[in-house]
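Why do we bother with a discrete structure alphabet at all? Because it lets us treat a fold like text: something you can write down, compare, and reason about line by line. To make this less abstract, here is a complete entry for 2'-5' RNA ligase family protein. Read it the way you would read a sentence in a foreign language you are learning: slowly, and without expecting to understand everything at once.
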Amino acid sequence: MPRGPRRPVLPERLFFCLFPDTDTAVCARRFAERFVREHHLEGRLLQPPRFHVSLQHVGDYGYLRTKFVYAARQAGKAVSVHPFEVAFHFIKSFEGAPSSSGRPRRRPLVLLGEGDALSELHKSLGTAMEKTGLRAARLFTPHMTLLYGPKLVPMQAIEPIRFMARKFALIHSERGLTRYNVVDCWPLQG
């Protein structure tokens, strides 16, 4: 009997993120395909609809409870930031977690983002989350994952890839099934 995809112990993830516009996502995918080909990388490229910049991780759960969704929605609603440009100037691999099955590491190949406004949104969202009883991350490395593969790629400059951040979203990720469900979305209007 065929089995479905193997899901983690805590398969329900809730997080805040920015999605690039469609044109930017397609541009990033073309860049990734070219980069992978030129550097002879192996791994699984993400599809453009999965490209995002994570802002805050709310939590991983066995079952997604309404109280966490409600608290996260209240936090999202409380944030007020003007639209801003997100710019990626570098590409590199993160180390990635060691594999428990003996397989090679799945190292994320990422575009690195920067900007004061991006950090401000991360911090504002974290403050709002803490006011609703959620934990928030203090450290923030803005990035957009393109691929998971075994090879470690050192940081290198790229021709910038940019997009205007006009809204942010609360996402329910069904881990192991590669599905993102938009729970709510808020415009950036300051």
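What the structure line is telling us, in plain words: The radius of gyration is 17 Å. The chain has a mean pLDDT of 91.
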